[in-house]
Amino acid sequence: MAVDPRNTSRRCPKCGHIAKENRTAQEKFHCIACGHNAHADTVGAVNVLRAGLVRREAAPA
């Protein structure tokens, strides 16, 4: 299932804040709103998974 990848590596999985400043380096994520730290690939993967689950739930059965 395809999901829109926009901002998936910039959106904080804890608080939802989106900012390019959340990506302090290629592999580092640090939310400027809540302070959450993680590997940027993990953040992107979690956000893509959540978007897919939301889309799957919204699809008619």
The largest sheet is: 2 strands, antiparallel
What is the count of β-strands? 2
Strand content: 5-15%
Gyration radius, rounded = 12 Å
Number of helices: 1
Low-pLDDT windows of residues: none
In N-to-C order, the SSE pattern is: EEH
Number of domains: 1
Order of strands across the biggest sheet?
Answer: 1-2
End-to-end Cα distance: 15 Å
Output mean pLDDT.
94
Helix content: 25-40%
Report on the structure:
- By secondary structure, the chain is α+β, with helices and mostly antiparallel strands.
- It has one domain (1-61).
- It contains 1 helix and 2 strands; from the N terminus they run ββα.
- Strands 1-2 form a two-stranded antiparallel ribbon.
- Strand 1 (28-30) and strand 2 form a beta hairpin.
- The two termini are 15 Å apart.
- The mean pLDDT is 94.
List the helices and strands and how they pair.
Elements: E1 28-30, E2 37-39, H1 40-58
Antiparallel strand pairs: 1-2
InterPro entries: Cas12f1-like_TNB (IPR010095)
Organism: Streptomyces glomeratus
Protein name: Cas12f1-like TNB domain-containing protein
